[in-house]
Design a protein that fits this description.
The protein is of the alpha/beta class and 291 residues long. The protein has ten helices and eleven strands. A six-stranded parallel sheet has the order 1-11-8-7-5-6. α6 crosses α7. The protein is globular and about 55 Å long. The structure holds NADP nicotinamide-adenine-dinucleotide phosphate. The site of NADP nicotinamide-adenine-dinucleotide phosphate has 25 residues, from α10.
Length: 291
């Protein structure tokens, strides 16, 4: 079987075009969508991620507000800054770049962001809304994967969907999204027994295990759709995923490459969430009764 490549570059570009149009319409109404990104310290990987977000904002017309705080910023000062941004009507989305320096409680910081501006979708109110089928912000990577599946014409309803990994930012929200699309969902993790027996049931397998080239053909049913969330550098400093692409692809009906699969979708969905936050900021009745 020769697998179809699911093209994340192309689909993310489509989404960014749609956001650009949406932003244009908001600007015509006098609303300038704005994303505030707080980075504490100068972690080089974080700086690259922040730069990518800035570029995507510039492309889509979203105002980018950069807040670079020194490495020794106290948790209290960071929480105060978040509170200021929560109260600033010109700011629609707030994102704190993770990881944070030691001594700052990531949970306290994430929970301090107003759910109405939580464009990462990490706040418990948004995570809960997703599980209850209510409107809210969905974590960008799983939201992007759903778009990859839908825009590639892959049917989810009634399918066996297996999610490998149960993190709060990928695995769990992914499972909730697939369930909401009427998939039959199984979530696996490090304590799962006979992992291959479970993954071999999957019509759709989402791999977010955080281990380079962990999944090969022996994990797959013939004709499975495989989504690879992982990002790693191999021995030759090339990007690779959680899936051994060379071994897995011949057994798949469709598969995402790394790079060029899930990766570009995350920033595109962040832009989409920012446009949504700006649009909802002017609605008379806030979502979910005033949060
Ligand atoms: P994570 O928090 O490290 O979670 C990994 C999950 O895999 C955990 O649930 C863990 O189980 C499970 N696991 C680990 N070893 C296992 C094993 N041997 N068998 C079965 N399950 C196992 O990772 P994450 O944040 O979800 O990220 C996953 C990958 O996606 C990483 O490579 C990350 O870099 C990448 N990522 C990419 C993007 C993107 O934009 N493309 C975004 C986010 C993450 P336990 O819960 O039992 O420990």
């Amino acid at each position: 079987m020769s697998a179809t490549l699911i093209d994340g570059k192309k689909i993310s570009a489509q989404i960014k075009e749609e956001v650009k149009e949406e932003v244009l319409q908001l600007r015509e109404k006098g609303i300038v969508p704005c994303l505030a990104v707080i980075q504490v310290g100068n972690d080089p990987a974080s700086s690259v991620y922040v730069r990518n977000k800035r570029k995507a904002c510039e492309y889509t017309g979203i105002r980018f507000q950069d807040d670079l705080l020194p490495e020794d910023t106290s948790q209290e000062a960071l929480l105060d800054r978040i509170q200021e941004l929560n109260e600033d009507p010109q700011v629609h989305g707030i994102l704190v770049q993770l990881p944070l320096p030691q001594g700052i409680d990531e949970k306290a910081v994430t929970y301090a962001i107003s759910p109405a501006k939580d464009v990462d979708g990490f706040h418990p109110v948004n995570a809960g809304s997703l599980f209850l089928g209510e409107k809210g912000f969905v974590s960008c990577t799983p939201a992007g994967i759903l778009q990859l599946l839908k825009r590639s014409g892959i049917e989810i309803a009634g399918k066996e969907c297996v999610v490998l990994g149960r993190s709060n930012i990928v695995g769990k929200p992914m499972a909730a999204l697939l369930l909401a699309e009427n998939g039959t969902v199984t979530v696996t993790h490090s304590k799962t027994r006979n992992l291959r027996e479970v993954t071999k049931r999957a019509d759709i397998l989402v791999v977010a295990v955080g281990k380079p080239r962990f999944v090969d053909d022996t994990f797959l049913k013939e004709g499975a759709v495989v989504i690879d969330v992982g990002i790693h550098r191999n021995e030759s400093n090339q990007l690779c995923g959680d899936v051994d692409f060379e071994k897995a692809a011949p057994r798949c009906s469709a598969i995402t490459p790394v790079p060029g699969g899930v990766g570009p979708m995350t920033v595109a969905m962040l832009m989409k969430n920012c446009a949504q936050a700006a649009a909802e900021s002017v609605q008379e009745e806030p979502r979910n009764g005033g949060r």
